[in-house]
Amino acid sequence: MASTSVSQGRVALVTGAGQGIGRAIALRLASDGFDVALNDLQANEANLVSALAAVEAIGRKGCYIFADVSQETEVEEMISKVVEELGGLDVMVCNAGISIMKSIFNTTAEDFDRITSVNLRGTFLCYKHAGKQMVTQGKGGRIIGACSGTGKKGQPLFSAYAASKFGIRGLTQVAALEFGPHGISVNAFAPGPVKTPMYDHFETIIGTPEGVLEQELNKTAALGRIALPEDIAVVVSFLASKETSLITGQTINVDGGIVFD
Fold first, then answer.
1. Is residue 100 part of a domain?
2. Residue 141: what are its φ and ψ, rounded to 5°?
3. Catalytic residue among 165, 195, 219, 242
4. In the annotation, is 165 catalytic?
Protein backbone atom coordinates (compact mmCIF):
# COMPACT_ATOMS: atom_id res chain seq x y z
CA MET A 1 0.00 0.00 0.00
CA ALA A 2 1.43 3.37 -1.00
CA SER A 3 1.80 5.99 1.70
CA THR A 4 -0.08 9.28 1.54
CA SER A 5 1.80 10.86 4.45
CA VAL A 6 2.96 14.47 4.51
CA SER A 7 6.48 13.02 4.65
CA GLN A 8 6.13 11.75 1.10
CA GLY A 9 9.21 12.55 -0.96
CA ARG A 10 11.50 13.13 2.02
CA VAL A 11 14.57 10.90 2.33
CA ALA A 12 15.72 8.99 5.41
CA LEU A 13 18.90 6.99 5.98
CA VAL A 14 18.84 4.25 8.63
CA THR A 15 22.08 2.57 9.72
CA GLY A 16 22.03 -0.98 11.06
CA ALA A 17 18.85 -1.50 9.05
CA GLY A 18 19.23 -5.18 8.24
CA GLN A 19 17.31 -6.50 11.21
CA GLY A 20 15.73 -5.74 14.57
CA ILE A 21 15.17 -2.12 15.52
CA GLY A 22 16.78 -0.74 12.36
CA ARG A 23 14.54 -2.73 10.04
CA ALA A 24 11.44 -1.74 12.01
CA ILE A 25 12.45 1.94 11.81
CA ALA A 26 13.05 1.72 8.07
CA LEU A 27 9.66 0.16 7.42
CA ARG A 28 7.87 2.62 9.67
CA LEU A 29 9.48 5.59 7.92
CA ALA A 30 8.55 4.10 4.54
CA SER A 31 4.97 3.82 5.79
CA ASP A 32 5.20 7.48 6.79
CA GLY A 33 6.06 8.37 3.20
CA PHE A 34 9.85 8.52 3.28
CA ASP A 35 12.09 7.11 0.62
CA VAL A 36 14.56 5.06 2.65
CA ALA A 37 18.25 4.25 2.31
CA LEU A 38 19.26 1.16 4.26
CA ASN A 39 22.75 0.65 5.65
CA ASP A 40 24.48 -2.36 7.17
CA LEU A 41 27.64 -4.40 6.77
CA GLN A 42 28.09 -6.48 3.63
CA ALA A 43 27.78 -9.63 5.76
CA ASN A 44 24.11 -8.68 6.25
CA GLU A 45 23.34 -8.28 2.53
CA ALA A 46 20.55 -10.86 2.54
CA ASN A 47 18.78 -8.97 5.31
CA LEU A 48 19.18 -5.68 3.44
CA VAL A 49 17.74 -7.19 0.27
CA SER A 50 14.72 -8.37 2.26
CA ALA A 51 14.29 -4.99 3.98
CA LEU A 52 14.53 -3.12 0.68
CA ALA A 53 11.87 -5.37 -0.85
CA ALA A 54 9.61 -4.55 2.10
CA VAL A 55 10.20 -0.80 1.65
CA GLU A 56 9.38 -1.04 -2.05
CA ALA A 57 6.27 -3.11 -1.30
CA ILE A 58 5.00 -0.15 0.75
CA GLY A 59 5.35 1.95 -2.40
CA ARG A 60 8.48 3.94 -1.55
CA LYS A 61 11.82 4.16 -3.29
CA GLY A 62 14.85 2.78 -1.53
CA CYS A 63 18.42 1.59 -1.82
CA TYR A 64 20.93 -0.21 0.36
CA ILE A 65 24.51 0.78 1.03
CA PHE A 66 27.29 -1.19 2.69
CA ALA A 67 29.36 0.82 5.15
CA ASP A 68 31.17 0.38 8.44
CA VAL A 69 30.04 3.44 10.40
CA SER A 70 33.24 3.47 12.43
CA GLN A 71 35.21 4.35 9.27
CA GLU A 72 35.00 8.02 8.27
CA THR A 73 35.61 7.55 4.55
CA GLU A 74 32.88 4.91 4.40
CA VAL A 75 30.41 7.20 6.18
CA GLU A 76 31.22 10.06 3.79
CA GLU A 77 30.72 7.76 0.80
CA MET A 78 27.47 6.44 2.28
CA ILE A 79 26.00 9.93 2.59
CA SER A 80 27.09 10.79 -0.97
CA LYS A 81 25.47 7.62 -2.33
CA VAL A 82 22.19 8.38 -0.57
CA VAL A 83 22.11 11.83 -2.14
CA GLU A 84 23.00 10.39 -5.54
CA GLU A 85 20.44 7.58 -5.38
CA LEU A 86 17.51 9.32 -3.68
CA GLY A 87 18.13 13.03 -4.22
CA GLY A 88 19.01 14.32 -0.77
CA LEU A 89 18.94 13.59 2.95
CA ASP A 90 16.24 14.83 5.32
CA VAL A 91 16.45 12.37 8.22
CA MET A 92 19.50 10.50 9.54
CA VAL A 93 18.83 7.64 11.96
CA CYS A 94 22.09 6.48 13.54
CA ASN A 95 20.90 3.09 14.75
CA ALA A 96 23.92 0.83 14.14
CA GLY A 97 25.33 -0.60 17.35
CA ILE A 98 26.91 -3.63 18.97
CA SER A 99 27.39 -4.91 22.50
CA ILE A 100 29.09 -7.54 24.62
CA MET A 101 28.20 -8.94 28.01
CA LYS A 102 31.32 -9.07 30.21
CA SER A 103 32.44 -7.82 33.60
CA ILE A 104 34.93 -4.96 33.66
CA PHE A 105 37.63 -7.42 34.75
CA ASN A 106 36.93 -9.62 31.72
CA THR A 107 36.53 -6.79 29.20
CA THR A 108 39.71 -6.31 27.21
CA ALA A 109 40.89 -2.96 25.88
CA GLU A 110 40.19 -4.37 22.42
CA ASP A 111 36.61 -5.20 23.45
CA PHE A 112 36.13 -1.67 24.78
CA ASP A 113 37.57 -0.05 21.66
CA ARG A 114 35.44 -2.21 19.35
CA ILE A 115 32.18 -1.34 21.11
CA THR A 116 32.87 2.37 21.44
CA SER A 117 34.20 2.57 17.88
CA VAL A 118 30.93 1.39 16.37
CA ASN A 119 28.51 2.89 18.87
CA LEU A 120 30.03 6.24 19.81
CA ARG A 121 32.55 7.01 17.07
CA GLY A 122 30.07 5.71 14.47
CA THR A 123 27.32 7.97 15.78
CA PHE A 124 29.71 10.94 15.85
CA LEU A 125 30.70 10.35 12.22
CA CYS A 126 27.09 9.99 11.09
CA TYR A 127 26.06 13.13 12.97
CA LYS A 128 29.00 15.02 11.47
CA HIS A 129 28.56 14.06 7.83
CA ALA A 130 24.75 13.97 7.79
CA GLY A 131 24.81 17.40 9.43
CA LYS A 132 27.19 18.73 6.78
CA GLN A 133 24.93 17.46 4.01
CA MET A 134 21.85 19.02 5.60
CA VAL A 135 23.63 22.36 6.02
CA THR A 136 24.62 22.24 2.34
CA GLN A 137 21.01 21.54 1.34
CA GLY A 138 19.87 24.52 3.41
CA LYS A 139 16.47 23.20 4.45
CA GLY A 140 17.09 21.81 7.92
CA GLY A 141 16.65 18.19 8.87
CA ARG A 142 16.34 15.61 11.60
CA ILE A 143 19.20 13.59 13.11
CA ILE A 144 18.31 10.79 15.50
CA GLY A 145 20.74 8.71 17.56
CA ALA A 146 20.39 5.39 19.34
CA CYS A 147 21.04 5.69 23.06
CA SER A 148 19.80 3.15 25.64
CA GLY A 149 18.45 2.87 29.14
CA THR A 150 21.99 1.73 29.88
CA GLY A 151 23.05 5.19 28.74
CA LYS A 152 21.07 6.66 31.63
CA LYS A 153 21.62 4.04 34.32
CA GLY A 154 24.63 1.74 34.21
CA GLN A 155 24.07 -2.01 34.24
CA PRO A 156 26.52 -4.70 35.44
CA LEU A 157 28.35 -6.55 32.64
CA PHE A 158 27.84 -3.73 30.11
CA SER A 159 30.70 -1.32 30.85
CA ALA A 160 31.77 -0.64 27.26
CA TYR A 161 28.19 -0.44 26.04
CA ALA A 162 27.19 1.92 28.86
CA ALA A 163 30.18 4.16 28.20
CA SER A 164 29.28 4.41 24.52
CA LYS A 165 25.62 5.15 25.19
CA PHE A 166 26.28 7.74 27.91
CA GLY A 167 28.57 9.36 25.34
CA ILE A 168 25.80 9.47 22.74
CA ARG A 169 23.62 11.50 25.12
CA GLY A 170 26.32 14.14 25.48
CA LEU A 171 27.10 14.12 21.77
CA THR A 172 23.41 14.59 20.98
CA GLN A 173 23.19 17.66 23.21
CA VAL A 174 26.30 19.24 21.68
CA ALA A 175 25.13 18.53 18.12
CA ALA A 176 21.72 20.01 18.93
CA LEU A 177 23.40 23.26 20.01
CA GLU A 178 25.75 23.42 17.03
CA PHE A 179 23.26 22.35 14.35
CA GLY A 180 20.25 24.27 15.70
CA PRO A 181 21.04 27.52 13.85
CA HIS A 182 20.75 25.54 10.60
CA GLY A 183 17.26 24.25 11.42
CA ILE A 184 18.53 20.75 12.20
CA SER A 185 17.17 19.02 15.30
CA VAL A 186 19.20 16.29 16.99
CA ASN A 187 17.60 13.83 19.39
CA ALA A 188 18.05 10.23 20.52
CA PHE A 189 15.88 7.34 21.65
CA ALA A 190 16.73 5.24 24.70
CA PRO A 191 15.20 1.75 24.63
CA GLY A 192 15.21 -0.67 27.50
CA PRO A 193 15.30 -4.39 26.65
CA VAL A 194 13.93 -5.03 23.15
CA LYS A 195 13.02 -8.35 21.55
CA THR A 196 15.68 -8.44 18.84
CA PRO A 197 18.40 -10.87 17.68
CA MET A 198 20.78 -9.11 20.11
CA TYR A 199 18.37 -9.86 22.96
CA ASP A 200 18.13 -13.50 21.88
CA HIS A 201 21.94 -13.69 21.86
CA PHE A 202 22.16 -12.48 25.45
CA GLU A 203 19.45 -14.95 26.50
CA THR A 204 21.62 -17.72 25.05
CA ILE A 205 24.71 -16.45 26.90
CA ILE A 206 22.85 -16.32 30.21
CA GLY A 207 21.51 -19.81 29.59
CA THR A 208 17.97 -19.26 30.84
CA PRO A 209 15.12 -21.35 29.42
CA GLU A 210 13.31 -19.63 26.57
CA GLY A 211 10.88 -17.00 27.83
CA VAL A 212 12.13 -16.89 31.43
CA LEU A 213 14.35 -13.83 30.95
CA GLU A 214 11.53 -11.96 29.23
CA GLN A 215 9.17 -12.74 32.11
CA GLU A 216 11.68 -11.38 34.61
CA LEU A 217 12.36 -8.24 32.57
CA ASN A 218 8.65 -7.62 32.11
CA LYS A 219 8.37 -7.32 35.89
CA THR A 220 10.83 -4.40 35.88
CA ALA A 221 8.65 -2.27 33.57
CA ALA A 222 5.78 -0.20 34.92
CA LEU A 223 3.66 -1.22 31.94
CA GLY A 224 4.51 -4.89 32.42
CA ARG A 225 6.30 -5.66 29.18
CA ILE A 226 9.54 -5.01 27.35
CA ALA A 227 9.60 -3.41 23.92
CA LEU A 228 9.23 -4.76 20.43
CA PRO A 229 11.22 -3.13 17.60
CA GLU A 230 8.01 -1.53 16.36
CA ASP A 231 7.62 0.33 19.68
CA ILE A 232 10.96 2.03 19.08
CA ALA A 233 10.05 2.81 15.48
CA VAL A 234 6.98 4.75 16.63
CA VAL A 235 9.16 7.16 18.60
CA VAL A 236 11.61 7.58 15.72
CA SER A 237 8.66 8.30 13.42
CA PHE A 238 7.57 11.04 15.83
CA LEU A 239 11.05 12.58 16.04
CA ALA A 240 11.44 12.45 12.25
CA SER A 241 8.19 14.29 11.59
CA LYS A 242 8.00 17.93 10.55
CA GLU A 243 5.74 18.62 13.52
CA THR A 244 8.56 18.10 16.04
CA SER A 245 10.60 21.08 14.92
CA LEU A 246 10.92 22.47 18.47
CA ILE A 247 12.24 19.27 20.08
CA THR A 248 16.02 18.97 20.15
CA GLY A 249 18.83 17.75 22.39
CA GLN A 250 16.56 15.19 24.05
CA THR A 251 17.06 11.49 24.73
CA ILE A 252 13.63 9.88 25.01
CA ASN A 253 13.06 6.72 27.05
CA VAL A 254 11.15 3.94 25.30
CA ASP A 255 11.14 1.19 27.90
CA GLY A 256 7.67 0.71 29.35
CA GLY A 257 8.63 2.57 32.51
CA ILE A 258 11.99 1.19 33.66
CA VAL A 259 14.05 4.38 33.75
CA PHE A 260 12.52 7.69 34.84
CA ASP A 261 14.23 11.06 34.46
1. yes
2. 165, 180
3. 165
4. yes
pLDDT in tens, 23-76: 999 999 999 999 999 999 999 999 999 999 999 999 999 999 999 999 999 999
Residue 118 sits in a domain whose CATH number is 3.40.50.720
Domain that holds residue 116: 11-194+228-254
- The secondary structure of 214-252 as a DSSP string is HHHHHTTSTTSSPBPHHHHHHHHHHHHSGGGTT--S-EE
Domain assignment present for 5: no
- Give the count of domains, the chain: 1
Catalytic choice (161, 199, 219, 242): 161
Q: What is the pTM of this model?
A: 0.94
| Domain membership flag for residue 205 | no
Rounded to the nearest 5°, which phi and psi values hold at 252?
-95, 125
